[in-house]
Design a protein that fits this description.
By secondary structure, the chain is an alpha+beta fold. The chain has helices spanning 6-16, 43-48, 89-103, 143-148, 206-217, 261-281, 288-314, 317-328, 332-339, 346-352, 360-373, and strands at residues 23-26, 40-42, 58-62, 64-68, 74-78, 84-87, 106-109, 113-118, 123-127, 130-134, 137-139, 153-163, 170-174, 185-191, 194-201, 219-226, 229-230, 239-240, 243-245. Among the domains are: 1-39 and 88-151 and 233-302, 3-Layer(bba) Sandwich (FAD/NAD(P)-binding domain); 303-373, no CATH class.
């Protein structure tokens, strides 16, 4: 197992609990560090992974989201029913590591895997401490593996800031193609005077942009982090013989928002179960069931999200302002707030509210963005 974050650790626990030997190699010297994710997820998504985060892993609970158009038009979403939480990813990952180790997994921190070779009956991992032979390999090493496999990313960054003033219960999302081309920037509060501010986009200096946002908010950075945003969809092939990919390494982060705790974690869970089946039966072909199961659950949703984001990224400021006005004056925000079903397809949302033919595609975009912000 390569990578000691959400997907890898969930997979390791699932494997170890079935009595199958599993080792996790994490290149960093501390699990959860550096923190590369804002940790925004729905409680229902975490619960579906079979995890109840300890209270010290939860930094905040959110009940509202406000989306801002380029000119400042607002769309408000009531997220009370969704029970959205902000995880301290460093602590959460450590909690997952503890679960995996308690179940019987072996964990090696500060040990980098530089490559691998596979034969008909084994996989050999090249590590900085020597070769390791295994029956199977699961790559959950994150965006670097995704990029090496041909996946495209956006530039991204996140600050932890203090000072300023934030509405503790409200996440803010700002859509401005000139400031964050191809994506958006966001403010996730942890308290009234502390927040996570992040941005994604193409051809931007992420730190310069976040510095500007923080200055306008009167906030002071106390931590800076830069990492690509994985939002180009899942790889075409997740399984190759005795090897597989899950999590960000497989592109399992949502194309609309880049969030991947639930979708990537679910991939790790499915991969772990498939590896157990392959190991116990002696049939490597069992591993392929992981890919088919994940695509059955998320494949169509990811296609819709990716299509939506591509349309969204091509819209001008004026088109976005018109779109915000249309959505704001419709029933969509209220229904999404009340429905609480974030697996509902965005096209169905647009059709349900009677968008005209000319507006159905762009109407779908914002509906999908709102829905997926809170789906883990």
């Amino acid at each position: 197992m390569i990578g000691g974050s959400v997907a890898g650790l969930i997979a390791a626990e699932a494997i170890a609990r079935e009595g199958v030997d599993v080792s996790v190699f994490e290149e960093h010297r501390e699990i959860g560090v550096p923190e590369k994710c804002d940790g925004l997820v729905s409680a229902s998504g975490i619960a579906e992974l079979g995890i109840t985060p300890p209270s010290n892993c939860i930094q905040n609970s959110l009940s509202r989201a406000i989306f801002f158009s380029p000119s400042g038009k607002e769309i408000e979403l009531d997220a009370t029913r969704q029970k959205v939480i902000v995880l301290d990813r460093a602590r959460f990952d450590k909690h997952l590591a503890e679960r995996a180790v308690t179940a019987g997994a072996r964990l090696y921190v500060g040990r980098r895997v530089s490559g691998h070779t596979q034969s008909a009956d084994s996989v050999v991992l090249r590590t900085d401490s020597g070769d390791v032979k295994s029956s199977y390999m699961l790559d959950c090493s994150g965006y670097e593996s995704y990029i090496r496999s041909g996946g495209a990313t956006l530039q991204g960054g996140q600050y932890l800031v203090c000072g300023g003033s934030f509405e503790k219960s409200t996440v803010e999302v700002y859509v401005d193609p000139k400031f964050a081309p191809g994506f958006f920037y966001w403010v996730i509060p942890l308290s009234t005077d502390m927040a996570k501010i992040g941005i994604g986009g193409t051809a931007i200096n992420t730190f310069e942009r976040i510095d500007e946002i923080a200055m306008k908010r009167g906030a002071v950075p106390i931590r800076k982090m830069a990492a690509p945003v994985v939002c180009s969809g899942v790889l075409k092939k997740l399984v190759d013989g005795r090897t597989a990919k899950a999590g960000d390494a497989a592109g399992m982060a949502k194309p609309t928002t880049g969030g991947g705790i639930f979708t990537g974690g679910y991939g790790g869970l499915l991969a772990g179960r498939a590896l157990v089946s392959a190991a116990k039966s002696g049939r490597p072909a069992e591993l392929a069931k992981f890919e088919s199961s994940w695509r059955e659950r998320f494949g169509n949703e990811f296609r819709i999200q990716l299509y939506s984001r591509r349309i969204f990224a091509k819209m001008s400021n004026e088109q976005l302002d018109d779109l915000f006005g249309t959505i704001r004056n419709s029933e969509i925000p209220r229904i999404i707030s009340e429905e609480g079903d974030f697996d509902l397809h965005s096209i169905a949302i647009a059709k349900a509210f009677g968008f005209s033919k000319s507006l159905s595609a762009v109407g779908m975009v914002l509906a999908n963005e709102i829905r997926n912000l809170f789906s883990g």
